[in-house]
Structure prediction request, 396 residues.
Amino acid sequence: MTNNTTADAGTKIRPFRIEIPQAALDDLDERLARIRFPDELSGTGWDLGVPTGYLAGLVDYWHNGYDWRAHEARLNDVPQFVTEIDGTQVHFLHVRSPEPDAEPLILTHGWPGSIVEFLGLIGPLSDPRAHGGDPADAFHLVIPSVPGFGFSGPTRETGWNPNRVARAWVELMHRLGYERFAAQGGDLGALITPELGRVAPESVVGLHVNAATVGFQPMGPAPEDVVAKLTHEERQRLAALGRFAADGTGYRVIQSTRPQTLAYGLTDSPAGQLAWIIEKFKEWSNPSAELPEDAVDRDTLLTNVMLYWLTATAGSAARVYYEAAKHAQAGWFPLTRSDVPTAVANFAGDTAIRHWAEEANTVVRWSEFDRGGHFAALEAPDLLTSDIREFFRSLR
Prediction:
């Protein structure tokens, strides 16, 4: 239950509504109308990054076809709130299920994602009775913007690493009256969510992750004796991890070392912001998707980008990588084990490997799917919803 009567005004939970000034949208239109595109080498496709022709077409749609106000209204259909935790504003969606015995569940997005990732899950998870499911599987949903992202940004001080975010999530859930709760997250959310099992195991019923990275796969060379025991599919994932380490981690290196320098370009140029995010949707979505919009529709892609652009939080969001790198030890691998029951869902292209996952997590469920992708909540919401329901049903 929402607490609006706390004596300390700093901890008060206040209703929030997205109301972007028209001047901000006019400014974006002006910038989109005069973007200066770079040259490109013919025949290189996506090898060097986002092709100019592709981005120009997406920019044209953003400028002439996309309707922010329609998507703003859709977001505002969901109850939203803000509160201050540990010195920073936390923005979150809070949807209570019509089922009185529903279980509280906190959903954590990743980078370059946002709360937009979860809009399609809200109905099926909070009101399964209305979506062909079992009402016993219902959840009260809390969907926060990670500090530094969107309306939870920008952060105003250093130190906002995944562990600190997890501690903020515990405070948020307790402030809402949820003493024990379930948790789910992907990508960055799959770093933050397991931390809940380390900072507050007594509060967490179970942990469900997808697009799992740190703590769920090797972060360096794998011992030959371990590789010999892996399945064929796991060896393929290990090879994919090697290719990613060699060719796909430039974004992480920059955001882990010089996020402020990067922020100037992304905050000043909508084309820069769009390209920085859309490249990851191309590279990380289902491998069978030729273009980002083959996996996630264009309006959803652009609404996600808009939450970064309109709040000028590209740099603030990038800083979580800098903070995580500073906080990390042992090659980013968790130093302490989580004993909270954990489920891992691998979608098409995901690279979590059970051997390493079990070193730092108490894995009790492992699911494999041949469709979906890194952005499973957007690419395969039906599969993700079913897996979340089945896992937490086993813990009720």
